[in-house]
Amino acid sequence: MNSRRAVCLLSGGLDSSTCLALARRDGYECYALSFDYGQRHRIELAAAVAVSGFFNVREHRTVRLDLRAFGASALTAEIEVPKHRSLAQMEQGIPITYVPARNTIFLSYALAWAEVLECSDIFIGVNAIDYSGYPDCRPEFIQAFERMANLATKAGVEGRMRLQIHTPLITLSKAEVVRLAAELGLDFTLTHSCYDPAADGRACGQCDSCLLRRKGFAEAGVADPLAYATNS
């Protein structure tokens, strides 16, 4: 098996793009995996294509599935995306932008492709510091999924593969992610973080994801090159 291959989950956002950059820096031949799952911010898929090209991945696939069939999220149903929330508000409970079982589904697809590719490494840019309270971004979730994955695959049962899920950003603040991305040479103009972009594609500047991104750039002392629909 080629231990230097890796499947990298790539949304086109700041965190997943930085995670891909890290995998490339560490010498992995990267296979990027994105999802068109009925998200309202589908513009992120164009960002994922741009980022995967920038880092010269071996292959980039976009899987189509429709999580609108279940809804219950502001990203996959006709539910208003929260705006202008304070950090204190973001830290209280699980927000309506949580998509039920999203990372479980995404990691399952990544696991399937990793087994086909005969590679034992998956990278995902989850973060448990500056994030919106999603339960599937926590270290205990990742650890539990990794244990399950090694029980659920033919390669794992036969002892031919020991899957590892890499979460290099999980304990970093957003400012630390920005600084790291800058060191790795990520072109920030290629990324997209907004949950509710304007019709012209500009980030709203008001949703949780935009506010956390802007906070990270400000604290890192790095200029965010993205155009926002509003500066407030």
Number of helices: 8
How many distinct beta strands?
Answer: 5
Determine the CATH topology: Rossmann fold
Q: CATH superfamily name?
A: HUPs
Structure commentary:
By secondary structure, this protein is an alpha/beta fold. It has one domain (5-220): HUPs (Rossmann fold), CATH 3.40.50. It has 8 helices and 5 strands, in the order βαβαβααβααβαα. The protein has a 5-stranded parallel beta sheet, with helices on both faces. Helix 1 (14-25) packs across helix 7 and helix 7 crosses helix 8 (208-220). It is globular. The model has no long low-confidence stretch (mean pLDDT 95).
Task: From the structure above, extract its key features.
232 residues, alpha/beta, Rossmann fold, 5-stranded parallel β-sheet, 37% helix
Report a brief summary of the structure.
By secondary structure, the chain is of the alpha/beta class.
What are the SSEs and their pairings?
Elements: E1 5-9, H1 14-25, E2 29-36, H2 44-54, E3 59-64, H3 87-90, H4 102-117, E4 121-123, H5 139-152, H6 154-157, E5 164-166, H7 174-184, H8 208-220
Parallel strand pairs: 1-2, 1-4, 2-3, 4-5
Helix pairs in contact: 1-7, 7-8
